[in-house]
Specification:
Distance between the termini: 72 Å
Structural class: alpha+beta
Helix content: 40-55%
Number of domains: 1
Largest sheet: 6 strands, mixed
Shape: globular
Number of helices: 7
CATH architecture: 3-Layer(aba) Sandwich
Number of strands: 8
Strand content: 15-25%
Strand order of the largest sheet: 1-2-3-5-6-8
Radius of gyration: 20 Å
Order of helices and strands: HHHEEEEHEEHEEHH
Length: about 200
Amino acid sequence: MSSQYERELRAVLAGIPKGVAAVTRSCDQIAKSRAEQVIDKPFLVVRAAGSGMEGSGDLLALRGDLCFPIEVKSSKVPKLYLSGRTEEQYLAMQREGEKCSLMPLYAFRLKGVRGDSWRIFRVEISNLTGRLGMLTRRIPALPLTRNGKPFLDWEKGMPLHLFLALVCRKNTSETFSSVSNRKEETQQSTLTNMVIS
C-alpha cells in the first residue's frame, strides 16, 4: 500500500483542514460539509508500527469515544479480492477485533474518480456493544464472494464523507435533551389547556 494514500487518509481523520479540503475538492457542498465535521471532532491517527503487527492494520484512529484499526487499500479497479497475504491480514484483523472488542475498518480508495474516492467497510466482528454496536448497523461489512470469502467492492462501501458525518456528529445526549424538553413543553401545554377548559 502506497504511503501516499495512508497520509491522505490520516490528514482527513486528524481533522487537518487542508487534508479535508484536498479530499473533498471535487465533492458537492453537502459532502464537503459532512466531511468537515471531523475538523471539530478529530481523531489522533497513528501509523501502526511498521504496519507489521498482525491484525493492527496500517493506521490506528483514536478518540475518547472510539478506536479503529484501519487497513488502507487502493486500486484502479472497483473490486479487490483478498487472497494469500491480504486474506491473512483480514483474518488477523478479525481475530484482534474479536479479542479486543474493536471494529477494524478497511478504507478503500479508487484511483481516478471524481468526488469522494474513499469507501469504508467494517470487518465482521460479533458481539460489539455500545457505540460500536450501533455503528455495526450503519457501516457495511466487506461483501462476500459466492464462496463466502470477503472482498472489497468500492460500489458497496460507505463514502468517507458519510462515515465522518456518522462518527463526528454532535453528541446524541444533546438530541435526547432537546426531545425531552419538547416532551415536557407538550405536557405543560396539555395541562394548561385542561385547566383553562
